[in-house]
Amino acid sequence: MNRGIAWTDWVRWLAAAGAALLGVHLALSAWSAQAAGVEVTPTQLPRAFTPLVRRDATPTPTVTPTPSATPTKTPTPTPSPGSNRSLRFYGNGVNAPGKDRVEIRIDGPARPADVGAGDFTLEFWMKAVLSENNNGHTCSAAGDNWINGHIVVDRDVYGKGDYGDYGISLASGRIAFGVHNGSSGLTLCGTTSVADGQWHHIAVQRRRSDGYLWLFVDGQLQAQADGPNGDISYRDGRSGQPKDPFLVLGAEKHDAGAAYPSYSGFMDELRISNVLRYTGNFTRPAGPFAPDANTVALYHFDEAGGTTITDSSGATGGPSNGVMQVGGNPSGPVRSTDTPW
Ligand SMILES: [Ca+2]
Ligand SMILES: [Ca+2]
Ligand SMILES: [Ca+2]
């Protein structure tokens, strides 16, 4: 019996086992980071600031996409069935015309998501960083000012439109919500930056009787004003530019030019209601909405795959389903397991 040799072998064996365990640990860590939806922020090309140009002017010629450098891509985690998910847009905008967005048809035939003929509330969750949404445009109340921020929700119609149009953008990190009724426009500006890498709940409301507008961030009223009057829904059967009869998420719908950049960031739980949901400050929602009689469109973005964005509202005349138009570099939108709750 040689106790010295046996002890040495034991140490060697422990060292080998330790190294193997460390390898398994590192592999598991990498896997769990991906499974948790952690994504590396893609490098984005800086967007040159372009002076205000109203889309109500002559239609802008089609912009030829500019090839951009290939950023490092992070593999998209594959969500498991049944889990909560969000969408991650990459702000490709005119570099990927018609892509990196969700298109929700609101006419042909008319759909319940076409609000504006009565009161409405539109609310959603978002998470973004300023470095990806920083074209230098600062929000101001004048007219269609919102259209020069990074567009998050676009219910524009080309030109002044009939009856009108509206949308939401991110301007120097603050929310801009604007409405135009064909003859005058107004934009509300948020008072705090929401481009801080945290999830925020955004709610905008419009009262049909007098055009009054409200903007809430995380349940706090940040802006309100008496906006343009009248019906701002999409007139049934109207003909116009190809993207007019759509509600578009995550991009400027017409690809009208670099002056109208698109949103880069996450979105979850979009609800559109045909009533004014909020009469004052409120506690932001702690989970997904359940449809009720005033819910005209509800998107959980929880689909496991495919390109359909399901409207879960159950509203009469619906559903107002959307379609993911995937493309760009990085390619978006992608489904993510990064969610607000
Ligand atoms: Ca969700
Ligand atoms: Ca317009
Ligand atoms: Ca309509």
**Quaternary structure type:** single chain
Q: Any idea how many domains?
A: 2
- SSE pattern, N- to C-terminal: HEEEEEEEEEEEEEEEE
Query: What percent of residues adopt helix (DSSP H or I)?
Result: under 10%
Low-confidence stretches: 1-5, 13-54, 56-71
**Number of DSSP helical runs:** 1
User: What class do helices, strands and sheet pairing give?
Assistant: mainly beta
Any idea what the shape is? globular
Instruction: Report the strand count.
Output: 16
Highest-level CATH class of the largest domain: Mainly Beta
CATH topology descriptor of the largest domain? Jelly Rolls
What ligands are attached or bound here? calcium ion
Percentage of β-strand residues: 25-35%
The first-to-last residue Cα distance is 63 Å
Average pLDDT, to the nearest integer? Answer: 84
Structure description:
This protein has 341 residues and is mainly beta. The protein has two domains: 1-35; 78-336, Sandwich (Jelly Rolls). Helix content is 10%, strand content 28%. It has one helix at residues 3-35; strands at residues 86-90, 101-105, 120-129, 150-155, 165-171, 174-180, 185-189, 196-206, 212-217, 220-226, 246-249, 264-273, 295-299, 308-309, 322-325, 334-336. The radius of gyration is 23 Å and the shape is globular. The model is unreliable at 1-5, 13-54 and 56-71 (pLDDT under 50). One calcium ion binds next to strand 12.
